[in-house]
Design a protein that fits this description.
By secondary structure, the chain is α+β, with helices and mostly antiparallel strands. It has two domains: about 120 residues, no CATH class; about 140 residues, DNA integrity scanning protein, DisA, N-terminal domain (YojJ-like (1), CATH 3.40.1700. About 45% of the residues lie in helices and about 20% in strands. The strands form three sheets. A seven-stranded mixed sheet has the order 5-7-6-4-8-9-10, with helices on both faces. The protein has a two-stranded antiparallel ribbon with strand order 1-2. Strands 3-11 form a two-stranded antiparallel sheet. The two termini are about 35 Å apart.
Length: about 270
């Protein structure tokens, strides 16, 4: 059934459904990937691809050849870069039951995807440990990723899969511990890594204002959507970093409330 015509192209109901489905899937993929380094890389590859289409349109053979090769390798790079995201998407597929259990295939439609409240990290325990470290003037940096476990960062230190306890965190950041200099990565209610190396912010406005630990906290939040809890060894105080900004002067309870609000939702899942 034809609905309307645009230039020489006739739009039917199927075309409209097709566009709506693609828009819904793209929107959900954006929600799934936003804030990660992989998302920024994808935007870069899309930009190169659009530029290549323009070069082809204006018939510029040398640039077309160069950008064409870059684009070919770019799609291979996407598979490598998005390993975690592809795995998460396949897990969504795996949650579909074709054999009953009162589950319908309509649950997999994009508009039925929802955010599942499954982040149960005990921030009270974590902040208690940070507060003790602040009182005893022992520095610490704890990273809470939102959309990725940041394995690319965690692999720079000691990879763990440990339960979160106050004593363990205090032990890691003890001045005599070989792991105390780096960052702890905490995701999905587990300590994923310790002694991880973080990128340092190069923002000239703050280089002389903060030490290396705080610059590292700001640096990782400039590149990802992670939240970072920092304990200052010199000041004996706690602070939070988010989106390249340092949030200071918060009480222990305010930090706990802040983290709970930030991580109340985390996992994209098939809705019920």
């Amino acid at each position: 059934m034809e609905l309307f015509e645009l230039y020489d192209f006739k739009f039917t109901l199927i075309h409209v459904i097709d566009v709506l489905l693609v828009a819904g899937i793209l929107h959900q993929l954006y929600r799934l990937l936003k804030g990660s380094l992989a998302f920024s890389m994808l935007i870069g590859l899309i930009t190169i691809y659009v530029f290549w289409l323009l070069v082809r349109y204006f018939n510029m053979p040398m640039l077309e050849t160069i950008l064409g090769e870059v684009t070919k390798f770019g799609f291979l790079a996407i598979i490598i870069i998005f390993q975690q995201e592809i795995r998460k998407f396949l897990l969504l597929l795996g949650k579909i039951s074709f054999l009953g259990d009162n589950k319908s295939l309509t649950r997999f439609l994009p508009w039925n995807w929802k955010i599942e409240k499954s982040f149960h990290t005990n921030f009270e325990e974590i902040v208690d440990a940070a507060d003790f470290l602040a009182e005893t003037r022992q520095g610490a940096i704890m990273v809470f990723p939102k959309t990725s476990e940041m394995k690319f960062i965690g692999s720079s230190g000691e990879v763990l899969e440990s339960n979160i306890t106050k004593r363990l965190l205090i032990s890691i950041f003890n001045k005599n511990s070989p792991l105390h200099d780096g960052a702890v990565i905490i995701a999905n209610s587990k300590i994923k890594a310790a002694n991880a190396v973080l990128p340092v912010s190069e923002n000239p406005e703050i280089l002389n204002k903060y030490g290396l630990r705080h610059l590292s906290a700001i640096g990782i939040t400039e590149q990802t959507d992670a939240i970072v809890l920092v304990v200052s060894e010199e000041k004996g105080s706690m602070a939070l970093a988010k989106e390249g900004k340092m949030i200071e002067g918060l009480s222990k309870n305010q930090i706990i409330d802040f983290l709970n609000k930030e991580f109340i939702n985390d996992m994209v899942s098939v809705g019920s």
